[in-house]
Amino acid sequence: MQKWYQIFQRSTGLNPYVWVVFYILPFYFIFRSSTAFHAVSGIAMVIGFFVCYLLAFASKGRFFYFWTSMQIAFSVSMTLMFGYMYFAVFLAYFVGNIRSKSTFFTLYSIQLSAALASAYVGYVHLNPLMITQWPFVALTIIAVILLPVTTYNRNRSEHLEGQLEDANKRISELVIMEERQRIARDLHDTLGQKLALIGLKSDLAAKLVTKDPQRSEEEIRDVQQTARVVLKELRELVTQMRGTHVEDEIHRLRQILKAANIEFSLIGDPAETRTSLLNENVVSMCLKEAVTNIIKHSGATSCMIEIQPRSSELVVRVTDNGQGLREREKGRGSGLRGMRERLEFVNGSLDIASYTPEQDGKGTSLTMRIPNVLVQPEPDQIHSTVAQVNKEE
Q1: Which of 1, 63, 196, 344 has the fewest CB atoms within 10 Å distance of its CB?
Q2: CA distances from 317 to 262, 291, 328 (A)
Q3: For residues 342 and 282, is the Cβ–Cβ distance under 8 A?
Q4: Which segment of 12-16, 50-54, 318-322, 367-371 scores lowest on mean pLDDT?
C-alpha cells in the first residue's frame, strides 16, 4: 500500500508544492461574490483543483488525463465566475513536467486554448475584476505560453545529460572489458607458451644430467635465455597496461563526442606521436579532461583536435566553438589546474586562448606542448655496444 507522502513525486522537486501557498489568493475573489451559493461553489472548486492537482502528479494512464481535464475545467470555471485565472500558471508548470512528447503538445494546446478562451470571454462580458487586473492577466497569458515550453525543454535536457552520462559509463565498462580480454590473450599467446617451453626443457635437462651432461648444459642455457625473454615481455606488457596511447584515447573521445551530438574533427595522425609512453599517458589524460569540460560547460557544437609531432616536442591543440572562458576563470577550474600539473610533471606546458562574445569572438583553444624524451636503451644493448667498441679497438 502506498504511503501518503509518496504522492509527492521526487522528479518534480518542491516547486509545485511551494506554490500551494498561493491557494489563499482565490478566497479574496470568492468572498467578494454577492451570494452564498457563489462563495460555497468557489471554495469547492479551489479544494477540487488542489486535490486534482496532487492526484494528477501521482496518476498514470487514463486517470492522469482525467485529473488534468478536471484541473482545466476548474481553472476555466474560476475565471468565468470570479475573474481568477491564475490557476492557469499552475497548469502551465504541470504540463511542462510531462515527458511524453505527444502528451505534452496535446495538453499544452488544450490548456492554452482554454486559458485564451476564458480570458476572452471574461473581457467580452466586461468583468470588472478582469479589467482592473489586466496587467496581471497579460503576465499570466505570457506564462501560459512560455512556461510549459521552457520547463519541458529543461527536463528534456536533463534527461539527455543523464543518458549521456550512462553512455559514458557503459563505454568505460566496455573499454575495461576489452582491455582485460587483450591482457588475457597476451598472457596466453606469449608468456603461456614460453613458460610451457621452460617447463619442458627443464624436465629434459633433468633427465640428461647423467646420460648426456653436455646436452643437459645446453638445455639449461636455453632455459635461461627463454626466461630472460619472458621477463622482458612481461615488463613490456606491464608498461602497456599502465599507460594509455593517444590513438586509443582519440577513438574513445570520438565516441563520447558523437553521443553528445558534438561534431568532431581530427588533424594529424595520433599513431605518430613520436614520444614516450609516459608522455602519451599524460596527453591522453589531458585530452580526456579537455573534452569532458567541452561537453559539460562550453555549450559547443564542434570540437577539433590537432596533433603535431615535431623533432623536439609534441604539440596537441584542442579547439571548440563554445562560449569561451573569462580571464578570471582560466586559473580557477580544478580541471585546468590538474592538466597544468600533469604537463609540468613531464616538463610540458599549457596555453589557453579563449574568446567570449564580449570580445567579438567565440570558443576556446587549449595548446599542450610536451618535450620529447629519448627512451633509455636496454642494458643488453649497452653491453653489446660496449663489446663491439672494445672489439674494434
Answers
A1: 1
A2: 17, 12, 22
A3: yes
A4: 12-16
